[in-house]
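At your convenience, could you comment on the folded chain following this short note?
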Amino acid sequence: MSTITASDHELAKKVSDAHRSIKEQISTIIVGQDQVVEEVLLSILAEGHCLIVGVPGLAKTLLISTLAKTLDLEFNRIQFTPDLMPSDITGTEVIQEDKVTRERIFKFIQGPVFANVVLADEINRTPPKTQAALLQAMQEKKVTVGGKTYPLPDPFFVLATQNPIEQEGTYPLPEAQLDRFFFQINIGYPSLEEEKEIIKKTTSGSFYEPKVALNAKEIKAVQGIIRRVPVADSVVDYAVRLARATRPEDALAPDIIKKWIGWGAGPRASQTLILAAKARALLTGEMTPSVEDIKNLVFPAFRHRLVLSFQAQAEGITAEQVLRKLLEIIKE
């Protein structure tokens, strides 16, 4: 098993300092949303993808583009619509004529998915065929067009958004595709004081250009360190017990799960918890995650992996409420 070296410790210290710098810089542009910024950053460092759920006007695009600038990563935004085709995302081949030989050849024109950070805006507004094209790129980090395979930039991170209040004319992501997302991050309305500050900042005409805190090479190095971070057996045990307790047919499942959950979280949920906890430990200056890290990350890691039962939906029970009860029942 690989161990953490002295140079790894130095890079981890730099990442912890960069985390504070990133939050400070983003706070000059985005008011509040500290937890959202941290969860997105954890996903990037753990080589995951995010699904952001929030109503329009909460600065989702601005937040992600600003974060991409602080990490010195190329950013592209794709607006998903019902007429969007897979080739509009991945790219397409066009016929070109060689000026010398007059021979006609195919040339691949890259689509907007060829970037380090891709914002898939309103992913549920496009048909399943186009959704699948993006999800395949997320999983394999490459696209195949005309029998040829093209690798995507490294690092590669997709952040997809959904509007929770508009369901007409949408194509909801199936549970198996939702499971591919590392985190589901929910963005709520700002507080009264935060909204006042937002209005002042956005109507003053001032502009701030964020500075680079980390680069692609350092991010790749940190992603490698995270895989080598040691984890106590007790922490792994707690993460696995939480995941198994969400499955109604499992012996660990409490009565509320059997009542409110139709289908629980799979092994990806506990994998996500451990990887995210490792990343969070590095961001907070620690070299091994704790049970508290697990508790803090259960909501973004699990909320999109639970299928509520009909009874839960009828009673107005949410995944958040189920998870809060679960944390009270499943002890460390």
The mean pLDDT is 86. The radius of gyration is 21 Å.
